[in-house]
Amino acid sequence: MTAILMTETLEEIEMIQDNAERPQQITVNKFSGEKTDGLEVGVQRWWNKFSLQVRAAEIYAGSRAWPDDVKVTILGDFLTGMAEAWYDDMNAQLQMLTFAQVGAELIKHFRTAMTDLQITTQMCTSRKKASETYQQFANRLLGMADLIKGGRAAEHNARLALQSFCAHAYPTTQ
Predict the structure, then answer these.
(1) Of the candidates 125, 129, 120, 127, which has an alpha carbon nearest to the alpha carbon of residue 158?
(2) pLDDT tens digits for 8-32?
(3) How many whole angstroms separate alpha carbon 150 and alpha carbon 137?
(4) Are 101 and 124 contained in the same domain?
(5) Number of domains into which the chain is organized
(6) Which residues, in sequence order, are bridge partners of residue 79?
(7) Domain of life here (predicted)?
(8) Phi–psi pair at 79, nearest 5 degrees
(9) Which of 41, 126, 129, 173 is the most exposed place for a label (fewest CB within 10 A)?
(10) Angle at the Cα of 109 (from 106 to 114), degrees rounded to 5?
């Protein structure tokens, strides 16, 4: 994976390269873009974690914010599989965008193709699997709520997840 840095000055590049601790500050697992539960690849949650760790690394390093093209280049080091192939194919276009815009493109590309209605229906009819703990079931429902417009921060989505949990966490007798 090759990326061209477009920073304004040699001084900015040297400042970032001199900070050898930078990569160790970002510990999020690589994102592959492959579905793990049949519904979603977790791109939104991964991006949120990654972008927070990038910001924390900037603060920890004591420097001003890194240029967007540097952050976009760092992103490439944390992608694998289908996501890495997407990044390599799109690299020239991605380098022209802000870091936030690149995140939005990543989310748009790897987000589920299901509509909000389909996700809501699936969330409301999901039952706890015998192999799942209650926490895993709750997390699965909250993950579905995150996929609906507004995410779990939207009260309606959070209520739907809670109602589904209450209705389907404990099997009824037949």
Answers:
(1) 120
(2) 455 555 555 455 344 567 888 898 8
(3) 21
(4) no
(5) 2
(6) 31
(7) Eukaryota
(8) -115, 150
(9) 173
(10) 130
Range of the domain at 123: 116-168
For 130-150, letters b (16+ CB in 10 Å) and e give eeeeeeebbebbbbbbbbbee
pLDDT tens by residue, 38-47: 566 678 888 9
Same domain, 26 and 71: yes
**What are the structure tokens assigned to 108, written together?**
């748009």
* Same domain flag for 99 and 145: no
Structure tokens at 134: 């209650």
pTM for the model stands at: 0.66
- What residue type is assigned to position 18 of the chain? D
Contacts of 143 (CB under 8 A, 6+ apart): 37, 39, 40, 42, 45
Distances (CA, A) of 145 to 106, 119, 159: 19, 8, 9
What are the tokens at 69?
Answer: 């093209």
Distance between CA 170 and CA 168 in Å, rounded? Answer: 6
124 falls within a domain: yes
Q: What is the tally of helices (H) and strands (E) in the chain?
A: 9, 0
In angstroms, the CA 164 to CA 126 distance is: 7
